[in-house]
Amino acid sequence: MRQILMAGAIALAFSLFGTKGLIKILAGKGYGQIIRDDGPSSHHTKRGTPTMGGIIFILAAIIGYSAAHIISGNTFTASAVLVIGLVVSLGAIGFIDDWLKVSRQNSRGLKGRYKLVGQAVFAGIFGFLGLKFADTDALTPISQHLSGVRETTIYLGSFLAIVLIIIMVMSASNGVNLTDGLDGLATGATIMTFLAFVLIGVWEFGQSCAVNAAGSCYQVRDPLDLAVLAAAFAGGCTGFLWWNTAPAKIIMGDTGSLALGAAIAGLAATLRVELLLIPLGGLFVIITMSVVIQTLYFKMSGGKRVFRMAPLHHHFELKGWAEITVVIRFWIIAGLSVAGGLGLFYAQWVVK
C-alpha cells in the first residue's frame, strides 16, 4: 500500500509542477492546438493552446512508478513493464500525429489508416509478449482465457487472445481520443478508471491464490504492481488536470489520448478483467457509440443526423449547454459507470 501511495504522490507532484514548465516550452515554440473549422464555434478560442501535453503525464507515471520501486527496493514486473511499453508506443503514434498538425498548421495529422495500423501492430506485439514471461506459478501477464469480471473457463488460444487485445487497445485508445474534445473531460474520466484499477489490483492481490488459496481466489500474475502503476497514472493525470480544466492552459493531444486508452486497455488485460473494461470505461463507450450511430444513420438516411454533432458532448454544446456543464455532467456519468463496474466486480466475488 505504501508503494501505491508513493507512486501516486510522486507522479502527481511531477505532473503538477512539470506541466507548468511544459506549457512555457510549448508556447515558446508555438506548438499550439489546431482547431477544425467544422467544430463548435466556441472552440475557436482554444486555437493556439499548447498541445502534446500527454508527454508530461506519461513521463510522470513512469517516474512515479520507477521511483516507488527504487525507494522500496522492489523489482519491476513483466506485466507493468509491458503496459508501460504499450503506453509509450501509442503515445509515440499520437505524438507524430500532433507534430504533423502543428508543423503543418492544419488539423490534418497522421492519416487515419496509418494510425490504426500502428495501434494494431503495437497492440499485437503487446498481446504476443503478454503470453510469454511466465512466473514460477506458470502465470503469464495475459491469459489465453477470456476474462469478464475475472478469468473464465472460455479458452481462446494464443491467436484469438491476441486479436482480443488488439480490439481492446484500438477501441479504448480511439474512445479516449474521441472523448478528448472538451477541457478536462477525458482526463477526469480516466482518473476514475485508473483508481478503479488500483482497487481491483489490491483486491486481487489480497485474494490471490498465492496469499489465500480458497476456491474463489484470483490467479493474476502481478496484481499489486499493476495497482502501483495504475496509481502512478492516476497521479500523473490529476496533476495534469490542474492545468487542463476549463479554460485549459494545455491540451493532451493525441499524444495523451492514445496513451491513456492504451493504459486502461493494458491494465484491464493484465488484471484479467477484459470485459469489465466496458462498464469501467462507460463514458468512452457512450461517446464512441454516438459517433458510430451518427455515421451509420447519416449514410443510411441520405444525410440525416441523429445528433446535432458527434461526438456526443458537442451535441449538448450546440444545444446551449456551457462547456463546464457538459464536462461535469459527463464526469458524473463516468463516475457512475466506474461504480457500476466495481459493483459487478465485487458482486461476482460475493456470489462466488
From TrEMBL:
One of its GO terms (molecular function) is phospho-N-acetylmuramoyl-pentapeptide-transferase activity. It is found in: Membrane. Keywords: Membrane, Transferase, Transmembrane, Transmembrane helix. GO terms for cellular component: plasma membrane. Pfam families: Glycos_transf_4, MraY_sig1. Its main location: membrane. The chain crosses the membrane at residues 6-27, 48-70, 76-96, 116-134, 154-173, 185-206, 226-243, 250-269, 275-298, 326-349. The keyword Glycosyltransferase does not apply. GO terms for biological process: cell wall macromolecule biosynthetic process; cell wall organization. Belongs to the glycosyltransferase 4 family. MraY subfamily. This is Unannotated protein. It comes from freshwater metagenome.
